[in-house]
C-alpha cells in the first residue's frame, strides 16, 4: 500500500494541540508545568508574554524543538504536542523537519543568514522544503514583497537593509509557500507605519481563510487590539504556564 | 587525614583524569560521526535539495577560485626549488635514473597532498570556520532548525563535498605545475636533456599501482578533512568562545587532521 505523503486540512482536527505537555526546560526558560492549547484551522490565538526568552521557548515547544517530559518524569499522564495531527515525539528527524517546513515563523532575532542576500534568505525555507519551480517562488515572493511595501524582492545583504525593510522581509518569509501554521513572536512593534500593519493584518486574514492557524505571542496586548475579535482565544504565559 | 578526606582527594583526582581523558578524543569522535553523516547524506537523493546545491556551488567556486592562484604560485616555487634541486643533485651524484621515483614518492605522494591541504585550510577553511562559528554563536543555526532546515545538511554536507572535490582538483593542478616547472628550470640550466614527455614518462613509470590509488585518495581525504574539521569546529563553539579562541583551535585541528589523514593512507596502503 503506498505511503500517504500529504496531509489534507480535513484530515486532522487541530493544527496545533498541546495536551498536558510538560516541557523539558531549565528554571530560566519555560516553566515545566502542564500546557493545554488547541488551535483549529483558520483560528487565531493570542498569547501575552512579557519575557522574550520564554516566548521564544514556547514557540520552540510548539514547533517540536523542545522535548516533552516523559511519563515517568511527569508523574502521571504522558503529555504530547501535535502539529497537524502528528505527535512531534513520534516523528523521526526527517519527518519532523518536513513538518516544520509547513510552519511560517517570525522569531525574535529574525535569524537572517548574513552569508546570503535577502532574496535567498526569504526563499531559503521554500527552496529547501518544496519542489515548486524557482520562478514560481520568486513570483510569489515578489508579490508578497510588494504587498508589504517593498519595491520588489530585496537582493542586498540583510545588514544593508533598513530595520523596517528587514521587518517587511520577515513577513514575506513567514507567509511564503502557504504555511499551515504561523508562529509569530512579537510580529507587530508599535511605531511602524500603519500601512505595513494593515498589509500584515490583511495577509493574516487571507492565510486564515485558507485554513492556516495562527499563534500570535506578543509582549503588548495593544499590538493585537486592532485585530482581535470576540471569541478568539487569549492566554497569558507566565511563571505558572498558560492562563486563559 | 581520615578515610573520607583521602577518598575525596582520590575522587577529585580521578575526576580530573577522567575529564582529561574524555576531552581528548571528543573532537576525534565528532569527526568520525560527522564523516559518516556526510557519507550517509550524500548517498540519499532527497538530501540534494536546492539549498544544498546552492551552498555546494557557492563553496566550490570560493574554494577553487580563491585557491587557484595560491596553488599555482606554491606549485611554481616547489617546482623550481624541489624538483630542480632533486634533478640537479641526483645528476651530480650519478643517480639520475632515480629522479622519477624520488619525485613520485616525495613530491606527489607526500608533499603535494599536505601543501594543498594547508592551502585549502588557510584560504577557505578558516573562512568556513569563522562563518560557522558566527552562525552558531549568533543563534542562526537554531533558527534554521526551527524552520525545519538541518544545519548539518544545509552547511556541513555541501561544504565537505566541495572541499573534497576542490582537494583533488587543486592537487592535480599542483602536481602537474610543480613537475612542469621543475623540468623547465632544469632544461633552461641544461641539467636535463631529455624531452618533457620522457621526463613525465620516467615519473609515471616509477609510480606503483598503489600510488594511483593513494595519491588521489590523499587529495580527496585531505580536502574532506579540512572541510569537515572547519565546519564542525565552527559548530562546536560555545558562548564563551570568540575569534581569538576558536580560530587557533580550528587551525591546529585542521593541520592535525591533514597530517593524520596522510599518515593513515600511507599505513593502510602499505607505503609507509
UniProtKB/TrEMBL annotation, chain A:
SUPFAM superfamilies: P-loop containing nucleoside triphosphate hydrolases
Keywords: ATP-binding, Nucleotide-binding
InterPro entries, per the entry: P-loop_NTPase (IPR027417)
GO molecular function, one term: ATP binding
Protein known as: ABC transporter ATP-binding protein
Species annotation: Bombella pluederhausensis
Automatic annotation (TrEMBL), chain B:
Transmembrane segment boundaries: 27-43, 63-91, 111-130, 151-170, 176-200, 212-235, 250-269
UniProt-listed Pfam families: MlaE
Keywords attached to this entry: Membrane, Transmembrane, Transmembrane helix
Protein name: ABC transporter permease
Amino acid at each position: 500500500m503506498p505511503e500517504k505523503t500529504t496531509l489534507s486540512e480535513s484530515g486532522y482536527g487541530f493544527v496545533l494541540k498541546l495536551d498536558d505537555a510538560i516541557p523539558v526546560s531549565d528554571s530560566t526558560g519555560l516553566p515545566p508545568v502542564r500546557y493545554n492549547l488547541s488551535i483549529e484551522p483558520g483560528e487565531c490565538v493570542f498569547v501575552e508574554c512579557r519575557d522574550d526568552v520564554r516566548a521564544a521557548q514556547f514557540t520552540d515547544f510548539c514547533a517540536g524543538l523542545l522535548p516533552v517530559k516523559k511519563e515517568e518524569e511527569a508523574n502521571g499522564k504522558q503529555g504530547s504536542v501535535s502539529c497537524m495531527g502528528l505527535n512531534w515525539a513520534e516523528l523521526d528527524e526527517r519527518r519532523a523537519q518536513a513538518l516544520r517546513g509547513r510552519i511560517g515563523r517570525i522569531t525574535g532575532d529574525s535569524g537572517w543568514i548574513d552569508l546570503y542576500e535577502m532574496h535567498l534568505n526569504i526563499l531559503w525555507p521554500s527552496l529547501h522544503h518544496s519542489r515548486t519551480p524557482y520562478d514560481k517562488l520568486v513570483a510569489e515572493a515578489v508579490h508578497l514583497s510588494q504587498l508589504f511595501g517593498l519595491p520588489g524582492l530585496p537582493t542586498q545583504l540583510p545588514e544593508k537593509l533598513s530595520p523596517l525593510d528587514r521587518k517587511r522581509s520577515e513577513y514575506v518569509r513567514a507567509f511564503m509557500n502557504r504555511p499551515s501554521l504561523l508562529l509569530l513572536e512579537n510580529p507587530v512593534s508599535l511605531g511602524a507605519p500603519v500601512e505595513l500593519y494593515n498589509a500584515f493584518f490583511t495577509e493574516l486574514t487571507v492565510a486564515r481563510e485558507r485554513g492556516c492557524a495562527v499563534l500570535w505571542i506578543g509582549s503588548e496586548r495593544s499590538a493585537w487590539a486592532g485585530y482581535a475579535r470576540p471569541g478568539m482565544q487569549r492566554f497569558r504565559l507566565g511563571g505558572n504556564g498558560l492562563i486563559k | 587525614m581520615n578515610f573520607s578526606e583521602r577518598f575525596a582527594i582520590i575522587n577529585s583526582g580521578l575526576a580530573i583524569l577522567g575529564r582529561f581523558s574524555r576531552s581528548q578524543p571528543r573532537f576525534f569522535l565528532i569527526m568520525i560521526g560527522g564523516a559518516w553523516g556526510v557519507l550517509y547524506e550524500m548517498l540519499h537523493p532527497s538530501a540534494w535539495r536546492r539549498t544544498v546545491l546552492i551552498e555546494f556551488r557557492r563553496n566550490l567556486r570560493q574554494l577553487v577560485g580563491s585557491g587557484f592562484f595560491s596553488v599555482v604560485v606554491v606549485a611554481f616555487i616547489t617546482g623550481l626549488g624541489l624538483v630542480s634541486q632533486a634533478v640537479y643533485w641526483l645528476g651530480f651524484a650519478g643517480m639520475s635514473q632515480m629522479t622519477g621515483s624520488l619525485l613520485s614518492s616525495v613530491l606527489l605522494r607526500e608533499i603535494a597532498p599536505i601543501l594543498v591541504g594547508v592551502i585549502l585550510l588557510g584560504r577557505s577553511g578558516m573562512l568556513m570556520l569563522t562563518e560557522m562559528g558566527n552562525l552558531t554563536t549568533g543563534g542562526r543555526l537554531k533558527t534554521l532548525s526551527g524552520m525545519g532546515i538541518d544545519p548539518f545538511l544545509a552547511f556541513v554536507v555541501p561544504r565537505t563535498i566541495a572541499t573534497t572535490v576542490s582537494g583533488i582538483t587543486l592537487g592535480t593542478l599542483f602536481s602537474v605545475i610543480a613537475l612542469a616547472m621543475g623540468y623547465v628550470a632544469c632544461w633552461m640550466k641544461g641539467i636535463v636533456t631529455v624531452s618533457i614527455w620522457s621526463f613525465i614518462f620516467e615519473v609515471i613509470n616509477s609510480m606503483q599501482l598503489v600510488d594511483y590509488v593513494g595519491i588521489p585518495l590523499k587529495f580527496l581525504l585531505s580536502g574532506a578533512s579540512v572541510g569537515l574539521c572547519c565546519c564542525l569546529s565552527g559548530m562546536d563553539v560555545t558562548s564563551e568562545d570568540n575569534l581569538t579562541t576558536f580560530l587557533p583551535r580550528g587551525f591546529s585541528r585542521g593541520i592535525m587532521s591533514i597530517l593524520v589523514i596522510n599518515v593513515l593512507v600511507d599505513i593502510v596502503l602499505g607505503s609507509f
